[in-house]
Amino acid sequence: MSNPGFDENTTDWSSTGTLTRVTTDASLGPLFGTHFGKVAYTTTTAITGVAYLPYVAEGGEDFIVSAYVRGPAATYTINGTAYTVPSTDTAVWHRISGVYSLTAGATSLSWTISVAATVAGATYFHIDSAQAEYGRIPHRYVDAADGTNTTALANPINSAKNMYAIQGESTYSGKSNFLYNY
To answer: Which candidate, 99, 68, 65, 73, places its Cα nearest to that of 6?
Structure first.
């Protein structure tokens, strides 16, 4: 994702609630980077992001989108998978994810997280560190704001958008690999 953690702006994000980019909220800061998104709503809302693929999809490829959410008790749904955040964990970041199947010819994927409050008075939630990658299991987060370990690469089919890569090493095998955030 070109703007996974709101560190630059809110470009490539939209919401049915009121989306703002913040550095802190109620003394809580971002998970990674310097900013995160805050979405204000009444009882339900949705936030949509866009992942830009590095090449044209053949069709049927598994693609997983994940993001960290935090806030009052609510049910978060991403591509049919629902996660419920209990009222005891409202100050904790929770990683949620959903698997998509790419359509032939696609060059981007628009994805949505729907949010429904499960307690009265829930009026906002936070979102940070979204990641989009090939496969069915989310890997460790590739922090776009980490200039030391993360490399920004121009997207080959949309040079106006970046993708991010980090080189990692498997815990036991010693082989290195690259993880990407599209």
So the answer is: 68
